[in-house]
Fold:
Amino acid sequence: MKLLVTGGAGYIGSVVAAQLVEAGHEVVVLDDLSTGHEDAVPAGATFVRAPVTDAAGVLGGGGFDGVLHFAAKSLVGESMARPGLYWDANLGGTLALLEAMRVAGVRRIVFSSTAAVYGEPERTPILETDPTLPTNPYGASKLAVDTTLTAFARMHGLGATSLRYFNVAGAYAAADGRVYRERHTVETHLIPNVLAVARGGGKPVSVFGTDYPTSDGTCVRDYVHVADLARAHQLALAGCAEGTHRIYNLGSGTGFTVQEVISVCREVTGHDIPVVTDARRPGDPAVLVASSELIQKELAWKPDRASLREMVADAWAALG
Structure:
């Protein structure tokens, strides 16, 4: 198949693109490199440096069988400070992409959504049918895309799947010997920030809140290995049915506390990682764990690398 991967120079998009190339697909990566890295585009893929709003120029060339859509702004704090940027980039960019797909006759899309659409959940594990109450413009803009995909599926016969990620971790060693890892300019994820401290990255790790109703008082989060996540995209693409929009959670179904993550990082790295405690951050739920039963049932997906130690070890090894 010939596939367009928007945002394919980023962390998750590059791993998906690499797996697609390995599977024998013709892959075109579209990325403006505002947060991605050109050297993350896998060998064998065609690279087009442009924003997602220019997708019509790529899809207009014809022959595309589907789109995997990762291009987005994704910093919660920035979305609170600049909400217009997030509505324009995430919803506006996707609308331009969907219109380009409609004109070009491309009828399948897998969308990179987020657990942020749920906000502060009423219960865990979270089901796809649970209320969506995002607490920031980032989550709200992603939810708006989900709503748009439902409408395009109904009105234009689009086959769409939204994958709502929880916490993505680890690194991917591709068949060509390249290793794909997290390289965010502004890093907000716990594991790479802890590993940066282990490498001598300066300040101690900040733990926000130690009085949550959990086993050790720190927040619980669900982690999924990036390789498992990427594999889910291939299954979702194959399962897209015209006129239907499906939504699936992607997580391990098991949560780990912040203190457990730090402890595993200490074990893996052999470094005594310093920690400072701080007050809770507003809007941080005590527990965020996904139910992935629906995607397991309908697409036969389950995480093969659910071990937190394996995720941390892969991420650490990728740092060299």
In short: The mean pLDDT is 94. The two ends are 34 Å apart (CA to CA).
